[in-house]
Amino acid sequence: MRPALLWVWLVAASVAFATEPPVTALAFTPDGKSVVVGSLAGVHVRSWPELKSVRSLQTELSHVHDLAFSPDGKTLAVAGGSPAENGTIELFDWPDAKLRHRVSLHKDIVHAVAWASDSATLVTASADQTVRRLNARSAKASAVFEGHSRGVFAAVFLPGDKQLVTAGGDETLRVLEAATGKVERILSNHTRSVTGLAVRPAADPPMLVSISDDRTVRLWQPTLGRMVRFARLTSAPRAVAWTADGTSIMVACKDGALRVIDPETVEVRKTIEAIDGVAYALAVAPDGSVLVGGRDGQLRRVKLDADKR
């Protein structure tokens, strides 16, 4: 039997600016000493865990929807654009934050970007209903994947990079052959838009979590085409991530709360009031604490201590 856990939650640091737009994307730097913050106000680097301003990146994106470091830590992808006009990504060399490429690949905003494990390939998911695969060194698209009937909000590579899972406004998850975009499976249990995906670390077979406007968090074995279990929440989830050890799912919600879900039982272990208003973004820090971002530029660090009994 798994030992019981005593969950002790501490709000350790926070910042908020009443005149700032909401935080929409978060990513910890490879060294874990800083966090990159994206919003309508641009892209800024803050120290961790103090959350003090360090520097700004020279982005031209009017909206920033996603931030993702390549697995080798040498490139930061910034995704967004202008709604109904263009979907753009910017690739910055890291750690010097020098812009390498800026390219508009889509006719509508890019909601998400995902890296393959080789750090040379990435995909972009757009409101224009397409997913594009591109080479990070040249920033040239090598393939366009179509099939979603509405905007695509999320994309992730499965371990091994042979399969890609995409999800969006048509309420489905699509399991694709990553090289060709051939559809292997369509998973359609959600009843509203699917807004986020995250792969469980070190799971065999691969396990995936999805979040949706239907207020559910669902667990899948996508290579088998099977939904394993789901949790129903009282507030729509807006962002999702696994802890590094894969033992907990962290979900930031529309009501500003951070919810911690046990993936084995789908029990909501804890609900923490993280910020005032909608929480749009979260990221799990290398030290195990969770950073939640949302309305009015709010950033809130929530630290978890788990004591085994």
Give the helices and strands, then pairings:
Layout: E1 5-15, E2 23-28, E3 34-39, E4 42-47, E5 53-57, E6 63-69, E7 75-82, E8 86-93, E9 98-106, E10 110-115, E11 121-126, E12 131-135, E13 141-145, E14 152-157, E15 163-168, E16 173-177, E17 183-187, E18 194-199, E19 208-212, E20 216-221, E21 226-232, E22 237-242, E23 249-253, E24 257-261, E25 268-273, E26 279-284, E27 290-294, E28 299-308
Antiparallel strand pairs: 1-28, 2-3, 3-4, 4-5, 6-7, 7-8, 8-9, 10-11, 11-12, 12-13, 14-15, 15-16, 16-17, 18-19, 19-20, 20-21, 22-23, 23-24, 24-25, 26-27, 27-28
Molecular structure report:
43% of the residues are buried. This protein has 309 residues and is mainly beta. The protein has one domain (5-308): Methylamine Dehydrogenase, Chain H. The protein is 0% helix and 57% strand.
Question: Short description, anyone?
Answer:
This protein has 309 residues and is an all-beta fold. It is 0% helix and 57% strand.
- The strand line-up of the biggest sheet is 1-28-27-26
Mean pLDDT: 93
**CATH H level: which superfamily?**
YVTN repeat-like/Quinoprotein amine dehydrogenase
Q: Any idea of the CATH class?
A: Mainly Beta
